[in-house]
Amino acid sequence: MLRWTSASASFAFQSASHTGEPWLGPDLLEAIERSRARDILVCPIGFVADHLEIHYYDLDVEAQAFAREREIRLRRTQSFNARSEFIDALAQVTVEARVRVA
After folding, report:
1. For domain 22-101, which architecture applies?
2. Alpha-carbon torsion 29, 61, 43, 4, what sign?
3. CA-CA distance, 77 to 86, in Å (whole number)?
4. Are 58 and 28 within 8 A, CB to CB?
5. Contact criterion met (CB below 8 Å) for 36 and 70
6. What average pLDDT does the segment 11-17 reach?
7. Is the model's pLDDT at 102 over the cut of 90?
8. Do 15 and 54 contact (CB within 8 A), yes or no?
9. Residues 42/47/52/56 CA torsion (nearest 10 deg)
10. Would you kindly state where each structural domain of the chain is located, as residue ranges?
11. Cα–Cα distance, 3 to 46 (Å, whole number)
12. For labeling, which of 22, 66, 90, 96 is most exposed (least CB within 10 Å)?
């Protein structure tokens, strides 16, 4: 059984932009390395929908390869766009907005 504690969770950031602004840290790959965990669940909370660069490349390609090289099991949660409740909420907001405009 997996036991979760606040001590076993941490925040990290991925996909630094090319704006020249200082990047928030720690970087996801650094956090994976530092954690010494063998089984990691990543929850990308900064986006409500799957995004090619962020989800596919950063998590599903780059981070997965990094984890595999270290024999770490890395999984990620689905984005909100995969949840029917989220889609239903978006639909409801759209319907209500159209009624207000009409």
Report:
1. 3-Layer(aba) Sandwich (3.40)
2. negative
3. 15
4. yes
5. no
6. 69
7. no
8. yes
9. 10
10. 22-101
11. 25
12. 22
